[in-house]
Amino acid sequence: DSVYRASLMKLASIFYKLLFTMKETTEDFSKVKIKQRSNVQRAMSVLGSLCRYHDKEEITIVDNISDYLIVVDPIRLSWVNLPYAAFALLHEYLLKVDTITKCTVLRAMAGIFFSHP
Fold first, then answer.
1. What is the C-alpha to C-alpha distance for residues 40 and 29, in angstroms, rounded to an integer?
2. Residue 16, pLDDT above cutoff 70
């Protein structure tokens, strides 16, 4: 179980860091080079898929919705805060102008919703 979790966390950290780095580059990803846009969309999809396998038992329920929207620094990302951090980071991209990016974000968020309805 810990080997499985460590592998998932390693992958999640890579894609989370990419999304964290790219989130402030533009408000409209349709104007970004296709390679960068594809990398961001791929990172969103993978991060959402990885969150799908997060253990429900390890999540802490919070009362205030704004507590879900705290984007953590990639260094502080852990297995326990992964769903919240991923949700908050994806939410940042949901506020972007580009419709294709928004669609990708919603598909990625589905992974979080599957594991934590």
1. 9
2. yes
List the structure tokens of 66: 């704004």
CB atoms within 10 A of CB 12: 24
pLDDT at 67 over 80: no
79, 78, 95, 88: which is closest to 109 by C-alpha? Answer: 88
105 Cβ contact list (under 8 Å, min separation 6): 44, 90, 91, 93, 94
Which 8-state DSSP code applies to residue 72? P
- Cβ(83)–Cβ(115) under 8 Å? yes
pLDDT surpassing 70 at residue 63? no
Q: Say if residues 18 and 47 touch (Cβ distance below 8 Å).
A: no
**Which distant-in-sequence residues (6+ apart) come within 8 Å of 7 by Cβ?**
none
Nearest Cα residue to 4 out of 71, 58, 54, 56? 54
